[in-house]
Amino acid sequence: MKAIQVNASRPYQVLLGTDLLPTLGRQIREVTGSGTAVIVSDTTVAPLYAQAAEESLISAGVRALRYVFPAGEQSKSPPVYLDLLNFLARNHITRADCLIALGGGVVGDLTGFAAATYLRGIPYIQVPTTLLAAVDSSVGGKTAIDLPAGKNLCGAFCQPSLVWCSVDTLDTLPAPVFRDGCAEVIKYAVLYDRDLFAYLEETGLDFCREKVIGRCVELKRDVVARDEFDRGERMKLNLGHTIGHAVEALSGFRVSHGQAVAIGMAVVARAAGCPDRDRIVSILRQFGLPAETDYTAQALFESALADKKRAGDTIHMIVPRAIGDCAVVAMDVQDIKPFIEAGL
Ligand code: NAD
Ligand code: GLY
């Protein structure tokens, strides 16, 4: 088992290994001392892994409750959030108890936001079961729900008490969901690590999961330690996301997040004239991810203006200068459309 220490405002460990669910209860007891743990999960993940998590809690002397909501982004919503809070209140959950987010980024973000706000904050544990959640969303304490006006518009920074990543849970992921996570892995390599990029070029989809997840978590850990509250360097983790969010929104979310981020990375690499742009585009294709879009620069521009990362007339674009070296560039909105045009 690999342990990675995250030194944020609430320090915690990311524990990464195989077949870890049976020992989850013991670890939670040690880290939080909670008497009751509420497993929050979705309708796809709960039938696969909730029973193993529950048995492990019970054998460690922790009372286990289960809250399950319909799988999918549409559940990261105010009604499901309120229903979860009411479930916690009805079951007399106190600050001495904890929540367990068992699932992908949707479960993690919703559970984290409930934990940040219920009783003004109770402990929670991330148990990521998608590649995206393992390498990105379970670490760093960004929690949120969506509003009708846009994604992640209501949220809080709230670090988990523990991230418990049992890599074998990724075995049941549908291939497209796994590939979506690969877009985030490629993002970390383009941002920070030429060696990781070269390794992924060699292995394609058959990379060693423990090794690659561990490396991405280390990279994210370093960013979070330097800029927990997203005021500077953490913005880099949005590589590909401004254009990506525009593609997602224009498609009515039929283009998945990972596919959209892949398109966004390819567009900014081409637009910036990055000398490594051909390698970036070919690795995306190698991983079965798209690098082109049919949306026009005008449509993407208009959609990108709604991005919550916009500050007045400025949008921070993350621009690759080379693999492993990206810059945050504050662009005037009037320069965005020609920039996108150059990248299509
Ligand atoms: P998701 O949680 O919706 O999971 C994708 C699908 O896979 C779902 O249908 C889920 O039920 C299913 N699934 C999950 N684990 C499975 C398993 N082991 N076996 C079989 N099926 C499984 O989506 P995601 O891609 O994990 O996360 C996307 C969300 O993460 C978005 O809401 C995004 O905004 C958020 N996000 C948050 C951060 C952050 O820092 N907080 C970072 C990136 C993304
Ligand atoms: N996934 C972006 C962040 O954690 O900042």
Q: At the third CATH level, what is the topology name of the largest domain? A: Rossmann fold
Trace the largest sheet across and list its strands. Answer: 1-2-9-6-5-3-4
What is the C-level CATH assignment of the largest domain? Alpha Beta
How large is the radius of gyration? Answer: 20 Å
Describe the global form: globular
Mean model confidence by pLDDT: 96
Query: Which ligands appear in the coordinates?
Result: nicotinamide-adenine-dinucleotide, glycine
Could you list the spans in which at least 5 consecutive residues all have pLDDT below 50? Answer: none
Summarize this structure briefly.
The protein is of the alpha/beta class. The chain has helices at residues 24-32, 45-59, 78-90, 105-117, 131-137, 175-192, 194-203, 209-226, 241-250, 257-271, 277-286, 297-304, 333-343; strands at 2-6, 12-17, 36-42, 63-69, 98-103, 124-128, 142-147, 150-157, 162-166, 310-311, 314-322, 325-332.
